[in-house]
Design a protein that fits this description.
46% strand, alpha+beta
Length: 134
């Protein structure tokens, strides 16, 4: 696991011994978000069937608060970012490397306290990918 602080963002990344496309599918599967995201109880899209640039939806936090979200950047198979309740939130990226991939979460510099939550999410994503491979 690596932590990087480069204003205006900070990030945490982790090697996952699964193909990048497997990790990508977990990252864009809204039904999987509660399984890897400690702060997510549920998520759904509004008027779309999959994540894409400009897609909108609602995410329910772990404490049950419903918040609107918008996908603000989307590079299929590689990276997506979103805003939640109108604020820049996490970026999610995956890059193929020998033997698997590196998955990275980035946050605005003012949200660096959220990086430990992102680190837990990366661990859970690794476990989910292991389960899908079995």
């Amino acid at each position: 696991m690596a932590l990087t602080l480069r204003p205006p963002t900070a990030s945490v990344d982790r090697f996952i011994g699964a193909p990048a496309d497997t990790v990508w599918r977990v990252l864009v599967d809204l039904d999987a978000w509660p399984r890897w995201g400690p702060s997510v109880r549920r998520a759904e899209l509004s008027g779309a069937t999959e994540l894409a640039l400009g897609a909108r939806g609602t995410v329910w936090t772990a404490v049950g608060v419903a918040l609107p979200f918008t996908i603000t950047e989307f590079e299929p198979g590689h990276r997506w970012t979103w805003s939640v309740a109108g604020l820049p939130a996490t970026g999610h990226a995956v890059t193929a490397v020998p033997g698997g991939c590196r998955a990275r979460f980035e946050v605005p510099w003012w949200a660096t306290a959220y990086l430990p939550v992102c680190a837990v999410a990366l661990q859970r994503i690794g476990r989910l990918c292991d389960q899908r491979a079995q």
